[in-house]
Automatic annotation (TrEMBL):
GO terms for cellular component: PAM complex, Tim23 associated import motor
Gene name in the database record: LOC113742983
GO BP terms: protein import into mitochondrial matrix
Organism, as annotated: Coffea arabica
PANTHER family for this protein: OS03G0776900 PROTEIN, PTHR12763
Protein name (database record): Mitochondrial import inner membrane translocase subunit TIM14-3-like
All residue ranges annotated as the J domain in the record: 57-117
Localization terms from the record: Mitochondrion inner membrane
Length: 117
């Protein structure tokens, strides 16, 4: 008595599918571990303020390049001030630093700190 060929083929197909699923799961785990180990990109400047504000620090505060045009500086200043305005619960100190950054980047001030804080 011989078995039909369909009985022989189904275990082969089943083991192939299980093997493919195992390899896929292994690759998924490796990818997840590589993702978790990758360094995170920070979108903020981690340091405090310098004693005398430089053009670089002013650009970091406003989130623009040091060589940005006046319109970009004004737009960035407005965006940052809306988020940090003292009348909306923001800090007076941060607002003064944001204003100082705008003045330095627009060339009205040469970097000497006239901040009240």
């Amino acid at each position: 008595m011989s078995l039909p060929s369909s009985f022989m083929a189904s275990p082969v197909i089943m083991f192939s599918a299980v093997g493919a699923a195992a390899l896929g799961a292994r690759q998924l785990i490796k990818s997840w571990q590589a993702f978790k180990a990758a360094p995170r990109v920070r979108r903020f400047y981690p340091g405090g303020f310098e004693t005398t504000m430089t053009r670089r620090e002013a650009a970091l505060i406003l989130g623009v390049r040091e060589s940005a045009v006046v319109e970009k500086i004004k737009e960035a200043h407005r965006r940052v001030m809306v988020a940090n305005h003292p009348d909306a619960g923001g800090s007076h100190y941060l607002a003064s630093k944001i204003n100082e950054a705008k003045e330095i980047l627009m060339g009205r001030k040469k970097g000497a700190s006239d901040s009240a804080f």
